[in-house]
Amino acid sequence: MRQKIDLLNGPVFPSLTRLALPIMATSLVQMAYNLTDMIWIGRISSDAVASVGAAGMYMWFANGITVLAKMGGQVKVGHSLGAGERTEACGYARNAIQLSLILGLAYGIICLLFQKPLIGFFRLNSPAVIQNAEIYLAITCGLVVFSFLNQVFTGILTAMGNSRTSFLATAAGLIINIVLDPVLIFGIGPFPKLDVAGAAIATVFAQAVVTVVFLLSVRKEPDIFMNLHFFTKPQLSVLKELIRIGLPSSVQSMIFTGISMVIARIVAGFGDSAVAVQKVGSQIESISWMTSDGFAAAVNSFIAQNFGAGNAARAKKGYRCSMVVVLLWGVFCTIVLIVFPAPIFRIFIPEANVLPMGVAYLQILGVSQLFMCMEITTAGAFSGLGRTLPPSVVSITLTTARIPLALLLISTPLGLNGIWWSITISSIFKGLVLTAAFKKMAFRPAAQ
């Protein structure tokens, strides 16, 4: 395909940047999905934001399950293409897509069957908030299979050096979401006013459109998708290999989300407005980590192909180049969140009584943005080598420490701000420890 970039030859920085920019743009588009929802839902009330915040945790948890198929598929397709094994790459791609379909359908059924106890975990205060949270959960997670497929398609195409298709598909979904959000939330024209349910329907419909765009875009791709044979029976040995690669990152993501759910439950003790602040604040904060995640995906594919081709020196250079870029981005995000918290937060929740909490959240979490960017990019580089365990161990250990640290800090005069500081301190240590670990052990002979 013309969109594919040669990651094995030529200058490192231009190749890496050409691959990374569409991925970063895709991440910004995905962030815009969430921010668009928050802007319109925030116009309903902070209670509506709290409902979406609680239910949205399970969409976040779903992302961890998706990693099983996405990470394994992306890494193994990259390794196979780097080694010139296109038939193997096709097999890994097919099984990754099949695995994502199975996982997406299973997760959706579970969320539909257990929506009440799942939302009940957060101990929300208002019956209206609880009801809206259950509705949002049933719609978004009940039809989460589209999100699963989209992420796996993105991973496979990125491993092939094609990040442009993912950007175009995601951008198409964003346009649909931007149009449908106000129409379905507030009932414009012939459409009824659906409030939170309208935001959920808009999101799911947009994700379905993205899936359709992916299917239409890849149907003539000559290297992998034309020979995919999707209805072939899944290969158990290939599935095991995909799960072996993806499991540490998947467990890491799910535990990370699980810890965040516990933190959200603690936050709920300060009122539903505090839950809304956490939701909006995390979406604003995503301007740094989702962009870094995009660059991490690029360096993942770059390292995977070059490591598969036996070119460790080029893989190292790709990591160094990517770190320079994300560190600059992290510094920029830190400055923005610390200096301009009030006008940014007011875009999403204009209620004056909620603003001080939002400002405190953004300023405290702003301190950690540089280190978060380091962590995410280094984790992507590790997984490009097929080694997802080291970053997972670091992340799980330090993320788990947030709970006792949060409980300790909220008993001090810091109160609710102590919870935000526990998250910030954890992120700083994760970035420092993981970067040091990569420099020490990534390209040792044993890793090959």
TrEMBL record:
Protein name per the record: Probable multidrug resistance protein NorM
Cited CDD domains: MATE_like_1
Primary localization: membrane
Similarity section: Belongs to the multi antimicrobial extrusion (MATE) (TC 2.A.66.1) family.
Alphabetized UniProt keyword annotations: Antiport, Cell membrane, Ion transport, Membrane, Transmembrane, Transmembrane helix, Transport
Membrane topology: Multi-pass membrane protein
Transmembrane segments: 12-33, 39-61, 96-115, 135-160, 167-191, 197-218, 324-349, 361-381, 393-412, 418-438
Protein's GO biological process: monoatomic ion transport
Recorded GO CC terms: plasma membrane
Biological role: Multidrug efflux pump.
GO molecular function, one term: xenobiotic transmembrane transporter activity
Cellular compartment(s): Cell membrane
Biological source species: Sellimonas catena
